[in-house]
Design goal:
The complex is a heterodimer. Chain A is mainly alpha-helical. Chain A has two domains: 232 residues, no CATH class; 105 residues, abc type-2 transporter like domain (abc type-2 transporter like fold), CATH 3.40.1710. By secondary structure, chain B is an alpha/beta fold. Chain B is built from nine helices and ten strands. In chain B, helix 8 crosses helix 9. Classes of the chains: A mainly alpha, B alpha/beta.
Chain lengths: 369, 245
């Protein structure tokens, strides 16, 4: 234990003297949280909508004004014909085109089926789907208003869908993104710093002087892992503080649990970083390989896309993805207030990965070539 | 395995072979190093000196053969060997971003010295090298000569039985080389076995016995005086040229 203390002391002195690393530790979380959370948004806002109103009736005007009033659409100048409006979609000037055919109001009045046409620029399919769904809601609401205002009663409802959004009632996209971005942040900083550190000792030749001493493999690996684990936890704390102060993210669950799980997670991920650096001989190599792993982990983790939509093999593959567990756990604890009893499956997964990756790093570190 | 504690040898090597693919770096080396002697390991670049020294220190596994260092088999008890040896690499390998004292403290602690012992030994080292005022200087600000002398002292911080020096004076000016050899003599006077590789042939004269390696083989092993007599020449330089030509 005494030797471990001195090894850790050495690592901390070296980190403290490396001003670049110090700056990165403070700057990266602030930049990532301030820029990425706002920029990497899936929220639908201010979509350009053009309307070709062939009906020119009070109700068609009312439909347009309802759409214009919503935060989702900005209604541009009305177009006279469908063809010229279509051109605008092709040029990418507008995202949606709504065509209200002649007889819109009369069919509404005579209780016939109302036909309108929505053309969406579906290059961004998610956006197109959302726009379509939103327009349907607006029209359903409009026809209800129509019935109510005309007959003074609400229409007899067949099936009425009501919505209530749990855990994120305002559908605040940022509350969903902050925990995910935080995980990416902690992962990138932790994994790169750890992996580069050990390989740097190889490049400088200092590791040879260590290898010729009776130092134990686990002592050396723990001394390489622990400082960056603490930096990772510090980053997490800093990120949570920024998230709370700037984005008012909810922290429903236990922070102790968050940090306990983060410790497990970082042991695994930094273990992987060390494992990669035991098999690399230059910082260039280890950067490239770490980048590859992180990119796959991040894109599969469910931070931007729903894991449930993935093909089954993808979901199975995710069982090996430490980021998948951690993002899932973070969202569950912070947004839902989930406790250990709800999360034991993911916690088991992350623990197994931690033991496995850290163990492999110790085993794979060779004092003898 | 023979117990060396009763024998006069600090290092016993029998039939050591190291192959890298088709290339044989060490071809059936057999030699003994007596306790307390300064043993010179000579050879041109690429003769296999560094490979041999790395195997003796437990940094590299041999392809075959038996290596006993400080009484322990390097293959079966590498950690016991490591506790009893010091090693100074060809490439400077102290931490450049740590101070002189921090380097001494780190290695002292790894070898199991107490905080008190570390303080005492660091004072002794710094006084001997005349670096008492530079205790808190970063290693990277030192000149190569100082770095090498310091690396030697750190390799000896735990008072090992044997110290391995891999080309410790390459690139160092003649005055510093002289000072460096004084340090080696002092250590040898304390009973420490010195195993040193070099390609400065004048340094070979300072050794008790020298080995000349050529292309992975041992071509000669004797005292400098006897080798010179054998080849009927005046300097080790000529001995070396005779052997390698």
């Amino acid at each position: 234990m005494r030797i471990l203390f001195y090894l850790l002391q050495k690592e901390f002195i070296q980190i403290y003297r490396n001003k670049t690393i110090l700056r990165l530790i403070f700057v990266i979380p602030v930049v990532q949280l301030l820029i990425l959370v706002n920029a990497a948004t899936l929220e639908m806002r201010k979509q350009q909508l053009s309307v070709v109103d062939e009906d020119h009736s009070p109700w068609s005007k009312r439909l347009i004004s309802v759409l214009d009033a919503s935060p989702f659409f900005v209604v541009g100048k009305n177009d006279e014909n469908v063809l010229s409006a279509k051109k605008k979609i092709e040029k990418g000037e507008i995202d949606f085109l709504l065509v209200i055919p002649q007889g819109f109001e009369s069919s509404l009045m005579s209780n016939e089926q109302v036909k309108i046409q929505l053309l969406a620029n579906a290059i961004n399919s998610q956006q197109a789907q959302l726009g379509y769904a939103y327009l349907q809601q607006v029209i359903a609401g409009l026809s209800q208003s129509f019935v109510k205002e005309t007959y003074g009663v609400l229409p007899q409802a067949g099936i009425v869908t009501t919505f209530s959004y749990w855990y994120n009632p305002e559908l605040n996209y940022k509350h969903f993104m902050v925990p995910g971005i935080l995980v990416v942040l902690v992962s990138v900083v932790g994994m790169f710093l750890t992996a580069m550190n050990l390989v740097r000792e190889k490049e400088m030749g200092t590791i040879e002087q260590i290898n010729v001493t009776p130092v134990r493999k686990w002592q050396f690996i723990v001394a390489k892992l622990l400082p960056f684990l603490l930096i990772g936890l510090f980053e997490l704390a800093l990120g949570l503080t920024i998230g709370k102060l700037i984005y008012q993210i909810p922290i429903e669950g236990s922070l102790w649990l968050v940090f306990a799980i983060a410790t497990l997670y970082l042991t695994g991920l930094l273990g992987l970083g060390l494992l990669l650096s035991t098999i690399s001989s230059s910082q260039q190599q280890v950067t490239f390989v770490s980048f590859f792993f992180l990119l796959v982990f991040i894109l599969m983790s469910g931070i931007f896309t729903s894991v449930d939509n993935m093909p089954e093999w993808g979901q199975k593959l995710n069982l090996l993805n430490p980021l998948y567990y951690f993002i899932d756990l973070m969202r569950a604890i912070l947004l839902k207030g989930a406790g250990l009893s709800d999360l034991w499956k993911q916690v088991t997964g992350i623990s197994v990965l931690a033991v496995f990756l850290f163990g492999l790093a110790v085993l794979n570190y060779r004092k003898t070539i | 395995m023979k117990d060396i504690n009763t024998s006069a040898f600090a290092i016993e090597v029998v039939d050591l072979v190291k192959k890298f693919g088709n290339f044989t770096a060490n071809d059936h080396l057999t030699f003994n190093v007596r306790r307390g002697e300064i043993f010179g390991f000579l050879g041109a670049n690429g003769a296999g000196k560094t490979t041999a020294i790395k195997i003796l220190c437990g940094l590299m596994a041999p392809t075959s053969g038996q290596v006993v260092v400080a009484g322990y088999n390097v293959m079966t008890h590498p950690e016991l060997v490591k506790q009893n040896i010091g090693y100074m690499s060809q490439k400077f390998s102290l931490y450049e971003d740590l101070t002189i004292f921090e380097n001494i403290r780190l290695y002292g602690a790894i070898y199991g010295l107490t905080a008190n012992e570390i303080r005492q030994r660091s004072d002794t080292i710094l006084r001997k090298l005349g670096l008492l005022k530079d205790r808190s200087r970063l290693i990277k600000t030192l000149s190569l000569g100082w770095k090498q002398k310091l690396a030697f002292s750190v390799a000896m911080v735990h008072h090992p039985k044997i110290v391995f020096l891999d080309e410790p004076t390459s690139g160092v000016d003649p005055v510093t080389r002289r000072q460096f050899w004084e340090l080696i003599y002092e250590a040898a006077a304390d009973g420490i076995t010195i195993f040193v590789t070099t390609h400065y042939l004048d340094e070979a004269e300072y050794c008790d016995r020298v080995t000349v390696m050529v292309d992975g083989h041992i071509k000669a092993l004797d005292t400098p005086a006897k080798l010179k007599k054998q080849f009927n020449v005046d300097t080790m330089n000529e001995v070396f040229l005779n052997l390698t030509r």
